[in-house]
Amino acid sequence: MPIFESENQYSNPEGWLGEVMKLAMEASGALYIAMCECDDYWTDPLKLQKQGDFLEANPEYGASYSKINSYLQYKRKFIGLFGEKFESFESLLLKGNVIPTLSVVFRKKLWVKYNEDIKPNKRKWLMGDYPIWLYFAYYTNWHFLNEVTGCYRILQESAAHSTDSKKLIDFTRSYYEIRLFYAEKYGLENYRYILYSQYLWNLLCVYAETHDRYALKYLRNEYNQLVIPVSLRKYLIKSVIKLPILHYCLFFYKKIK
User: Fold this and answer.
1) pTM for the full predicted model
2) Whole-angstrom Cα distance, residue 116 to residue 122?
């Protein structure tokens, strides 16, 4: 059953992450939900069958995903595969989003629980999928179909990709806030130091990509707020190689006027 809107809701974060998704879910009487945004596409005609069969046979699993091809639209070329297996909620939290949205099939009842518990419409997050995947990972098992089932098109301008450093910074900040929210919600407060260092690293990548002085200033301000207890400093240096690299890079960048 098609659902028509009087205006494009995709460019409105509250529309895509909120009401449109909610309406689509509520309108469906299906037990399973598969997501595929209009600029992406599936390449395996048996994708849904394979994932649906697995979930039917394994009730202890709540969702299934696979690998996909990444296609750089403006250069018109494939740049590699996206999607990898993770072992637990904690590993998904620390790795970041390794689940391609267009590859996912999940039980609708899980999304209903997520929407009631997390209330994403009130969070103002700029990512709609990763918060859902984290929630599912905490409460259920994920099945990884080690096959390529679709194609994700990377556009020059989207929520996650842009030439505007301010947009990229906003997205990076929102990404960090999502991860911190879940770390605190499920009693993993010590993870906040790792997550913050990864957040700073991502900001450094924004600057490296854009060479925008605003991005560098924002990064420095965020970096200056990083306070790590001595008891955790050795652990972080051993477990997060990016942190000492980050310190070195920022020491170097301080020479930039």
Assistant:
1) 0.84
2) 11
